[in-house]
């Protein structure tokens, strides 16, 4: 048994990616009360949820910025758009630690999509279809 199996999390962790990138379709972004084990305080953070997935991803500034650059400032308009979530590392203090980062697929930006009648860019393709069959194989 792995640590990630023994101590389940409500939200996605880097271990959930199993070392692979995953293309996901954004369902919604909601604010959630998140307990910070280091400070023992509760903080309100944005969480992005995905079509066909149970766990959401707590967004940090870096990942929020990636989505904002790809799909605009208003998170209510991110519904239905694809993103790639991949594992990597980042510097935290004097250590390198595992983390997740977001990349926008090349042909998925708002400027590439025709605007809808209300002036907003519509989501590409069938937002309910799991991309590349990943829904069956991903543990989250």
How would you describe the overall organization of this protein?
The protein has helices at 3-6, 61-71, 134-137, and strands at 22-36, 41-50, 57-58, 82-92, 95-103. It is α+β, with helices and mostly antiparallel strands and 140 residues long. The protein has one domain (3-125). The longest helix is centred in the middle third of the chain and has 11 residues, at 61-71. The protein is globular and about 35 Å long. The protein starts with a helix and ends with a helix. Residues 114-119 and 125-136 have low confidence and may be disordered.
Topology:
Elements: H1 3-6, E1 22-36, E2 41-50, E3 57-58, H2 61-71, E4 82-92, E5 95-103, H3 134-137
Antiparallel strand pairs: 1-2, 1-4, 2-3, 4-5
Uncertain residue segments = 114-119, 125-136
Output the helix-strand order.
Answer: HEEEHEEH
Taking the sheet with the most strands, its summary is:
5 strands, antiparallel
Oligomer status: single chain
Helical fraction: 10-25%
Tally of separate domains: 1
Give the distance, in angstroms, between the N- and C-terminal Cα atoms: 17 Å
Q: What is the overall number of helices?
A: 3
Principal-axis shape equals: globular
Average pLDDT score? 83
């Amino acid at each position: 048994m792995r640590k990630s199996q023994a101590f389940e999390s409500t939200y996605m962790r880097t271990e959930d990616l199993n070392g692979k990138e995953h293309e996901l379709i954004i369902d919604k972004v909601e604010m959630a009360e998140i307990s910070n084990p280091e400070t023992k305080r509760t903080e309100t953070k944005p969480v992005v949820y995905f079509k066909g997935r149970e766990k959401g991803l707590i967004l940090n500034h870096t990942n929020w910025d990636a989505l904002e650059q790809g799909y605009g400032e208003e998170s209510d308009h991110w519904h239905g758009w694809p993103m790639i979530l991949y594992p990597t590392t980042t510097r935290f203090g004097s250590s390198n630690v595992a983390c997740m980062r977001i990349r926008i697929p090349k042909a998925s930006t708002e400027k590439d999509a025709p605007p809808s009648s209300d002036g907003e860019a519509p989501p590409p393709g069938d937002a309910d279809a799991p991309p590349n069959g990943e829904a069956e194989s991903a543990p989250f």
